[in-house]
Amino acid sequence: MKKLVKKVLCIMLCLSMTVAIAGCGSKKTSKSGDGKLDMSKKVKIGVLVSDTTTAEALSFRKYYVDYIQKQYNVEFVYSDQMKDAAGEKSALDTFITNNCKAVISFSSFDRASQLEQCEKAKVYYAVATGTLTQKEYDKYKKYEYYVGAVGPSLELEYQTGYDMAKHYLDKGDENFAIFGGALPYYTEMHIYRVAGMLTAMIEAGGKDANYDGAKTKDEVIAKLFKAGSVSTGSIGTIQVLGYVGGYDMDDAWNAKCKQMVQTKGLQILLAVGNGSDFFGAAAAKAGVKVASVDAYAKNYGDAMQGKMLDYMAGKFSASIGPIFIATYRATLGAPLHNDKGEAIALDQGYWVAQNNDEFQKYYKVDSSIEKPAYTKKMLDKLLKADYKTFKEFVEKYKYEDIQTIGE
Amino acid sequence: MKDSGRSMGKRLVGILAIPVGVLMIILILCGAKGIRLFATEGNWIAFFQATATVMITTIVLSINLNSGRFDFSIGSISLLSSVISASICIRFGLATGPMLLISIIAGAVLGLCSGVVYVLVKLPPIIISLGITLLYEGAAFTVTNGYGVSFVANNELVSFPSVFNYIIVIVLCLAFAIVVFDHTKFGYDYKALLSGQKVAVETGIHEVKNAIICYTIAGGMMGIVGFLSATNTGTIQMALNFGSISIMFTAFLPMFIGGFIGRFCNEKIGYFIGALTMAFVSLAYARLNVHSSVQQIITALLLVGFLIYLNNEKVIKNIFGFRKRRAEKNYEV
User: Fold this and answer.
1) B89: closest CA of chain A, how far (Å)
2) Bridge partners, B320 (sequence order)
3) One pLDDT digit (tens) per residue for chain A, 407 residues
4) CA distance A262 to chain B (A)
5) Is the dihedral of CA B177, B183, B186, B187 positive or negative?
6) Integer distance in angstroms from the first to the last C-alpha of chain B?
7) What is the DSSP secondary structure assignment for residue B3, as one 8-state letter?
8) Which chain B positions have a beta carbon within 8 Å of A297's beta carbon?
9) Per the CB < 8 Å rule, is B238 touching A53?
């Protein structure tokens, strides 16, 4: 009798454990019976940032914290400024311990490790304002907890640099200097932007123009990856009179920057990052025009008004709205995949201001927390949208296109 | 008279050997690459700007470090004081003069607060200064909403950089430091506390008051550094998580060089010459377009090499002395 009771108890215990384990493994869906998403519970989302002080990073944060967080039932938990991959791992551990259901990453020291860590912890992971390399994407596109990436692809970064240089080359300018930003640290997006600039110069430089022997886009990229810097000299009829890279910000670096801007004959400084803050004052004295890739911030507006900045390819702060929706949907049990059932990888570019009026027009929308570029009404359309609709929405990123979506 | 002249000559050699030696090496390197060290007015401005900021930072660092107080907060004082002064000047349309004055006052107040916290809390200064650093960095971040301060478009505020202005700043700061630390009662008390705190206190010197004044002077001078850095570029970048500490490390090598030169002249003039030497090096990095990683290696090697020399000076002198004596002996034979 005792044995029988034991057996029954064992079977019951096994059954209960099986049910419990199955319960743990089953994916919760917050969809109610009528297909609506259940947004009644607050969702915690970790935001991993490698930068907390630039205009771009602050604009993004403002959009999430001051707008999105007030419109949706979400709470953003921000990391400290990251300095390396170890810091990223530690910050992700903190998010996971804090019961974050998803992580939106702006930090790229080691994306592969971030992705693996989130997959292991069953926390959704998304890349904001960037993309994975094709090799990385091929590896991770089927991961259950990888939401995807929305941001400028490397191709788009290349095109941004190309367009910037071409804007001046078409006007007949021939003497350039380049600020390479994080190029010496082999940051891909900066390398591609510089490659775009140099390729445009090769095309404009005449028949035999080349950059250190490189004539095509791929050859230029390879040269930059090998050297980690830009060589000065002639590209056919076009001159690269100066180059500074890095963000040392010490006396020697500041002297280098000033010296470069004051190079005799220099007309245009093409900067892959913040150009006006580092070079603006010296450039204005020397009569050199500065073109930047950055964001829409007040100080850049002032610089543009004061003729310290001439051209801006800037990320708009609301550009991180769609990746938020994709991530939020995933946490609500309605993940978005492409037609093949893989994580999304969508291209989204910059707003380009070629004069102060354009800049001020973009800045007015970009700095608004009452009516930003992507409002809740617009983003709500994406909550249940299929991949095609989502893709079309993201790819219409230009200022004028977004106004059309808003209507 | 002959001995006095020889001694004077020896002192001059001691004072000038390092800067002249460094300059010679730099000129040879520049010559080999066909580059002029001082080719434009901009090069001169950069040189004197570096001399001024490094000299003041070195003097500030030495004020507390000589008394055993390691102060990590000097960079954050420079940051916050410049943020305060630039914000006020932009808001009320003030010129560079008031900006400098506000920077000095703000820096002195911040230094005073730092000193008061130190004497009240009585924790090791290294811990207090780290806490103060985080506090001031956070305050600067909050005041500017994280955006920093940019006044590149303000022609008045970015008009300060010029050789003449930097020379004035160098001369005034140097004179101030020499007068205060070498020719006032406070300075005598400061020196007495350096050489033996217990004895000095027993003779009636108030060490708490002295420490607070040291922090206040250091803060005020860092206000000048903040002003010089801000007006040089027209922008103040934010620093968090001890990001402002790096400014302190620029002063170590000139402080050691200055300490060595200080054997032959006033210590503060030694710091000036140390800063001058580093400004030559800094300009050479810029003119020769030296990669930042190479710069760091060279600076580290210079620092380590100099420390090795200072720590083994007697041994090195003995070796050379021995050789000299042996040479003299052989000559006599």
Assistant:
1) 16
2) none
3) 455 556 655 555 555 555 444 444 444 444 444 567 888 899 999 999 988 888 888 899 999 999 999 999 999 999 988 878 889 999 999 999 999 999 999 988 888 999 999 999 999 999 998 888 888 999 999 999 999 999 998 999 999 999 999 999 999 999 999 999 989 888 888 999 999 999 999 999 998 999 999 999 999 999 999 999 999 999 999 999 999 998 888 888 888 898 899 899 999 999 998 888 888 888 888 889 999 999 898 888 888 888 889 999 999 999 999 999 999 999 999 999 999 999 999 999 999 999 999 999 999 999 898 899 999 999 999 998 999 999 999 999 999 888 887 65
4) 8
5) positive
6) 32
7) H
8) 147
9) yes
Task: Answer for the pair A16, A254: CB distance below 8 angstroms, yes or no.
Answer: no
**How far is it, in rounded angstroms, from Cα B80 to Cα B83?**
5
- At the fourth CATH level, which superfamily is domain A155-315? Response regulator (3.40.50.2300)
Q: How far is B123 from chain A (nearest CA, A)?
A: 27
**Domain boundaries defined on chain A:** 43-152+317-349+371-405, 155-315
B232 part of contact set with chain A, CB < 8 Å: yes
Chain A residue numbers with beta carbons less than 8 Å from the beta carbon of B145 are: 58
| Tokens matching residue B1 | 């008279």
Predicted TM-score of the model (pTM): 0.79
CA pseudo-torsion sign A135, A138, A141, A144: negative
Q: A210 φ, ψ to 5°?
A: -155, 160
Spatial separation of the C-alpha atoms in residues B60 and B275, rounded to whole Å: 13
Answer whether B292 sits within 8 Å of A55, measured CB to CB.
no
**Whether B266 contacts chain A with CB within 8 A:** no
Beta strands in chain B (DSSP E): 149-150, 235-236
Q: Which residue of B has its CA nearest to A277?
A: B235
**Residue A296 in contact with residue A359, Cβ under 8 Å?**
yes
Architecture of the domain delimited by A43-152+317-349+371-405: 3-Layer(aba) Sandwich (3.40)
